[in-house]
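Hi Y.,

Following your request, here is the sequence exactly as I used it, all 224 residues.
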Amino acid sequence: MILADVLSGLVETDTDLLLAINGWRAEWADYFMYAFSGKWIWVPLYAAILYVIVRNLHWKVAIGCVVAIALTIVFADQVGATVIRPVVCRLRPANLENPVSEFVQIVNGYRGGRYGFPSCHAANTFGLAFFLFYLFRNRALNWFIMLWAVVTCYSRSYLGVHYPGDLLVGAFVGFVGASLCYWLFSRLCKYRRKESYEHIYVPIWVGGITISGILAYALIRAML
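Below is the corresponding structure, written out as tokens. Let me know if you'd prefer a different format.
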């Protein structure tokens, strides 16, 4: 009974947080969050990260690093989508079968798939963020990539396709995947961090330009 009451309270709080995030609306924010939540928009950022890895690591270690990052994403995505979701079967807030959907505002008709626990967006972005945190331990890059992951997660609740609880659990799955894959990578490839890395700020600049472009696009669309 106590456990049921605790779970009920957590679900109620989760729903209240979702409606608070989703309820704050601005036309420019609709465009911004929808674009920010996209996948292909971040290809330049991924390319910049790859450039820094190739630039600073021996080619054999760089290949091992790229494979480890790929495994981190696969682990995060599959644990969330294939292992946990079919067991928990928690409907997305915007799913029309969910009673709370009548209170959820959506953008561009986007409702996502059927189930949303945990969030694969959160698992993937935080998986990448934690792996880079372990890999470089550069303060500026750490702050940027973690903030990028947080805003990505916020956009998912803003769009009404994930509860905050989905995002927290997804972030934890990403953390576990990154920790495991980095541990294997560092031992198999005998990777040791350096005191400094060449062009380490390239992902920050590329990511910053991308975000500025998204913001400019959102503001212009809102004014039209």
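The mean pLDDT is 95.

Thanks again,
Q.
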